[in-house]
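in:
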């Protein structure tokens, strides 16, 4: 997957994904074990796991194009790689009946893939003109639908909250004024509207970046998917199983950080207004206290890695926490 804060070149065959060595260190692949690559994308993590040990990998992706591109890797590792169409938030349901044993590790690489950005017809990129779509899967509301239908205050809130954009109200006002004259259906059209509404420019950052990020997150319910995916991994992993999550911006990272911090510290779940609840044992142990970041050498080789963060934890033998304690 690619940084959400930039719109850069596409993956190429044999491309090494970000923080690959650290992800492999976290997952510690071993012969005979089963791993889930919940965000298959270009197959980089899956290929590395399969090369590192005589293990089996279940690759999940909601994008059917990613699964079609993965056919060659499936052939190379025949009998050891299974590709499954679906959302990683449903991973425990998706692998049920496919995995013959417990799951030893789960890898998640959050955000949009560079292959999606590089395809103009997918509508993710503000640098390539295409239909304003942004759907990772095949159905649901598109970015053009949101831009056309959301009332101006809700559009401003979406751009502010999901894009962390300080000029969200100006941008929403400009979009609302333009759509009164004609529908906004193309990525270049929206990008130019946003650029015209932003009064100052940050060096190295296109003014359309945050608005496109916000729309993409909303279209694909990415933050909700993270919450569901983390809880699904908790249910799926065996005691001693490992979870490794790579994120690219603060909205993603804070969700992962909070989930793992809560799950790795025992809590009573008590409230001064309610009777004392029994202690809830931690379901994870942190592998590293802080997120792992790419080194200068990796960033020099691959500038898109600059904002990446890896958090990892090991599953304990405690039962999964109830769903209502997810955040």
């Amino acid at each position: 997957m690619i940084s959400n804060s930039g719109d850069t070149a596409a993956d190429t065959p044999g491309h090494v994904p970000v923080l690959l060595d650290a992800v492999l260190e976290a997952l510690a692949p071993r012969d005979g074990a089963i791993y889930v690559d919940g965000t298959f994308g270009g197959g980089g993590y899956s290929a590395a796991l399969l090369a590192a040990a005589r293990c089996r990998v279940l690759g999940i992706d909601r994008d059917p194009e990613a699964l079609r591109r993965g056919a060659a890797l499936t052939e190379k590792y025949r009998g050891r790689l299974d590709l499954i169409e679906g959302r990683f938030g449903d991973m425990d349901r998706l692998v049920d009946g496919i995995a013959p044993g417990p799951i030893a590790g789960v890898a998640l690489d959050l955000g949009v893939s560079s292959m999606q950005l590089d395809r103009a017809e997918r509508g993710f990129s503000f640098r390539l003109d295409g239909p304003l779509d942004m759907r990772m899967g095949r159905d649901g509301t598109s970015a053009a639908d949101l831009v056309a239908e959301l009332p101006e205050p809700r559009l401003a809130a979406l751009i502010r909250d999901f894009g962390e954009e300080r000029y969200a109200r100006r941008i929403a006002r400009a979009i609302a004024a333009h759509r009164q004259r004609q529908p906004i259906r193309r990525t270049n059209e929206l990008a130019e509207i946003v650029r015209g509404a932003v009064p100052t420019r940050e060096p190295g950052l296109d003014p359309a970046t945050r608005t496109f990020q916000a729309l993409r997150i909303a279209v694909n319910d990415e933050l909700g998917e993270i919450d569901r995916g983390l809880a699904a991994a908790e249910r799926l992993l065996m005691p001693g199983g490992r979870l490794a999550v790579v994120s690219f911006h603060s909205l993603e990272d804070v969700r992962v950080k909070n989930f793992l911090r809560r799950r790795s510290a025992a809590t009573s779940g008590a409230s001064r207004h309610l009777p004392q609840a029994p202690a809830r044992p931690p379901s994870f142990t942190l592998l590293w206290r802080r997120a792992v970041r790419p080194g200068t050498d990796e960033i020099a080789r691959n500038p898109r890695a600059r904002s990446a963060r890896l958090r990892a934890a090991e599953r304990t033998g405690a039962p999964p926490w109830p769903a209502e304690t997810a955040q």
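note: The two ends are 24 Å apart (CA to CA).
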